[in-house]
Amino acid sequence: MTTFSMYSASIPVFKQILNSLNAILDKAEAHATDKKIDPAALLQYRLFPDMLPFTRQIQIACDFAKGAAARLGGQEVPSYEDKEVTFADLKARIAKTLAYIDSVPQAQIEGSEARAITTGSGEKTKHFVGQTYLFHYALPHFYFHATTAYDILRHNGLDIGKKDFIGSY
Asked: N or C: more exposed end of the chain, with fewer CB within 10 A?
């Protein structure tokens, strides 16, 4: 009989997609250079006026990965200042996020299925147990922002596909 692993359902998933986004950022920077596109045009691009720009999509994907690792591991969520304005800044944000999620001991995440987790504050406060938080909140939000970042670049002519998004595992 196989047991369920909260660690395996979270940290390796976040790492796979964050590493893919990191590689996609390299391609985006090369694309901007090759096509003589101002990098800010890609970094601040939105699919629709009421949507967040590319840079913010990467920041939020990182926030959900580090937030899930911290909450599932019973730790305080580290706060990152949202000050990235270049591809290099975004790559550094991803690297910092990967380093943090790697620092949360697997043993602290295992068994967190029933851990009480609270997000937000005031009227936006949400209460979960670990497994519901991971599967119905953290992962969907993480994938939404990672996918939106991918879609923004694809929409702007970057030659990337599903293999680039999924990466290697």
From this structure: N
* DSSP reduced 3-state for 119: strand
| Residue found by looking up tokens 């096509």 in the block | 35
Please check the confidence at residue 2 and state whether its pLDDT lies above 70. Answer: no
Q: Is the pLDDT of residue 8 over 60?
A: yes
Under DSSP, the state recorded for 126 is: E
Distance CA 83, CA 103 (A): 23
**What is the model's pLDDT at position 4?**
81
Rounded to 5 degrees, φ, ψ at 126 are -130, 140
> Which of 72, 60, 39, 57 lies closest to 151, judged by CA?
57
Helices (H), the chain: 11-34, 39-43, 54-72, 87-103, 106-109, 130-133, 139-155, 162-166
The length of the chain is 169
Give residue-wise pLDDT tens across range 62-99. 999 999 999 999 999 999 999 999 999 999 999 999 99
Q: For the chain, list the domains and their CATH numbers.
A: 11-166 (1.20.120.450)
Predicted local distance difference test score (pLDDT) of residue 97: 98
All residues at 6 or more sequence positions from 89 whose CB lies less than 8 Å from its CB, including other chains = 83
